[in-house]
Design goal:
Fructose-1,6-Bisphosphatase, Chain A, domain 1; 339 residues; single chain; binds 6-O-phosphono-alpha-D-fructofuranose; 13 strands; five-stranded mixed sheet
């Protein structure tokens, strides 16, 4: 962890974005505005997520509460908040969201001229809300390739992960953090509820090259490919020279599992299985943004063979097998897959 240069002490997300913007002489602030608006939506989502437990008193999520108001499910609420914030930014012309089968395009003049598109999972792991487990928002930002002034088109969204201009997540956990990259390393901000601002807390996050944590849903063990089964056994064998046995940690919330491994070192695996030959996680708004962050932090992200960021997307919601985290751990897992 890099300690903060003095001038960065307590700097807010917006101050940091503007400060960093001076590093991009040609940037006219569009990306800065986009990131700031995502931050606004994250604060609104955080407020609702934090009182999710109270909703049960007022009525089940997704139905009407005692006041007769329709209580939106939190992932639908989050989707709507982010769409509204991205539209208000005037820099985004369209969105691909886990919550929407088709792309969402804006047709107001300001947004039609927007330079960027966003792929997002508004509230990943939302099934964990009812049991108070950390959940997250994941976002990925690209420059549009269709002409400005027209509606966003599907090809704007089917770009390789290497074309991302920014990516990040918000983790709603014991504290709420925004972690993002614009290709200049990974930076973390922690929400200070007393002032309602994301404040710099992790100037630069570099993930350890090796680690002792492996994260995989071992309930699917019998459906895993042979190489994955052998890697799991490798993690469990005793060998002092390589710090084994490793520790198994699996929360079942991608952002929470990834965030812990990013800071401590570790590997997260959601492999192909006999029943799901492409795995479960989505390329556009789960694997690509997480892969960009992993690589920017010095880690690795593949589908077991190919670099995630170089996979050419074919459909909005396509799934890919996902191996990500400390570089040496991903490479060791890939060795077992090759055998
Ligand atoms: P499983 C949550 O539903 C999610 O999309 C990710 O956040 C998480 O990593 C994964 O699914 C968990 O899936 O099959 O292990 O419950």
């Amino acid at each position: 962890m890099v300690t903060h240069p003095k001038e960065y002490q307590g700097i807010t997300l917006n101050e940091f974005i503007i400060q960093r913007q001076t590093n991009f002489p040609y940037a006219k602030g569009e990306l800065s505005r986009l990131l700031s608006h995502i931050g606004i939506a994250a604060k609104i989502i955080n407020r609702e997520v934090n009182k999710a437990g109270l909703v049960d008193i007022l009525g089940e999520t997704g139905t009407t509460n005692v006041q007769g108001e329709s209580v939106k499910k939190l992932d639908v609420f989050s989707d709507q908040q982010l769409i509204a914030a991205l539209k208000a930014s005037g820099e985004c012309c369209g969105i691909a969201s886990e919550e929407n089968q088709e792309i969402v395009t804006f047709d107001d003049e300001l947004s039609l001229d927007g330079k960027y598109i966003v792929c997002m999972d508004p509230l990943d792991g939302s099934s964990n809300i009812d049991v108070n487990v950390s959940i997250g928002t994941i976002f990925s930002i690209y420059r549009r390739i269709s002409p400005r002034g027209e509606k966003a088109k599907i090809e704007d969204f089917l770009q390789k992960g290497t074309e991302q201009v920014a990516a990040g997540y918000v983790i709603y956990g014991s504290s709420t953090m925004m972690v993002y990259t614009t290709g200049l390393g990974v930076t973390g901000f922690t929400l200070d509820p007393s002032i309602g601002e994301f404040c710099l807390s992790h100037m630069r996050i570099d993930t350890p090259e090796n680690g002792k944590i492996y994260s995989i849903n071992e309930g699917n063990y019998i459906k895993f490919p042979e190489g994955v089964k052998k890697y799991i056994k490798y993690c469990q064998e005793k060998d002092d020279a390589t710090n084994r046995p490793f520790t198994s940690r699996y929360i079942g919330s991608l952002v929470a599992d990834f965030h812990r491994n990013l800071l401590k070192g570790g590997i997260f695996i959601y492999p192909e299985t006999a029943t799901n030959p492409s795995g479960k996680l989505r390329l556009l708004y789960e694997c690509n943004p997480i892969a960009f962050l992993a690589e920017q932090a010095g880690g690795k992200a593949t589908d077991g063979k190919r670099r995630i960021l170089e996979i050419q997307p074919k459909t909005l919601h396509q799934r890919v097998p996902f191996y990500t985290g400390s570089r040496l751990m991903v490479e060791k897992a890939e060795e077992f897959l090759e055998r």
